[in-house]
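Board work, copied verbatim: UTP--glucose-1-phosphate uridylyltransferase
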Amino acid sequence: MIRKCLFPAAGYGTRFLPATKAMPKEMLPIVNKPLIQYGVEEALDAGITDMAIVTGRNKRAIEDHFDISYEIEAQIQGTDKEQYLQGIRRLMDNCTFSYTRQIEMKGLGHAILTGRRLIGDEPFAVVLADDLCINLDNDGVLKQMVQLYKQFRCSIVAIQEVPPEEISKYGVISGEMIRDDIYRVNSMVEKPSPEDAPSNLAIIGRYILTPDIFELIEETEPGKGGEIQITDALMKQAQRGCVLAYKFKGTRYDCGSGEGFMAATQFCYDNLYLKGLSF
Ligand code: UTP
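↓ predict structure ↓
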């Protein structure tokens, strides 16, 4: 039912300069696998097969990653190194990849609007690949959200509790609790100060959006930081209908920050790479 996943991947990644000067942030490896590959795997495991990627200048490596490298294929054919490509081959065999470019980086809301042609008029998932979400022994975060969508049929944002000193990095929701892990959103603020934050429930980089969001983004003026904010459009959607916030099961690493990147690397090294599970 949710067939498409949008990956806004046009941002500059300034927090990771100089690594991101000529390389997309989404290609930063967590041990041996780039962030965006983890995101595509999570989407495929949720039953989503059409990947729609919003890129920008200096992002061509993403397209090359999800394509055949004939030289490498020829080099390793018939050797035991072929196992290293098993994971990426599975994605290429089971998914389609479409790309569009965001010409001016006017914010996450604008990046999502840029993907409109690739998505069309259907509900879709959004993954911000620098948020790495892991739930090893159970369903991935997107799969949990797709299941929830089947029940509620409205936009859903993934949330987690964050400490007060971190709240100003996030979009923050408040709402009415309708299950111990689900809120019906009635307010949403982008990057509030700890004093102004309506709660400690922060939106992370996983969304399910219904397609009416595109018109709402079109009507949205630039907000915090002069950028077109998805939270502002979602707030309108919440006022007109329903937006849910879901406290997902699993761990999320903010790999756009040094601390999160290191924690994710250590976790993936110990739990995936050393066990031969990270190809
Ligand atoms: P971030 O806020 O993390 O920005 O964007 P950024 O540019 O990637 O990183 P920093 O803060 O400068 O280090 C959240 C997501 O939205 C995408 C980014 O690629 C990232 O996945 N994005 C943001 C766009 O695609 N276009 C934009 O104009 C802004």
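The chain has one domain: 4-158+206-275.
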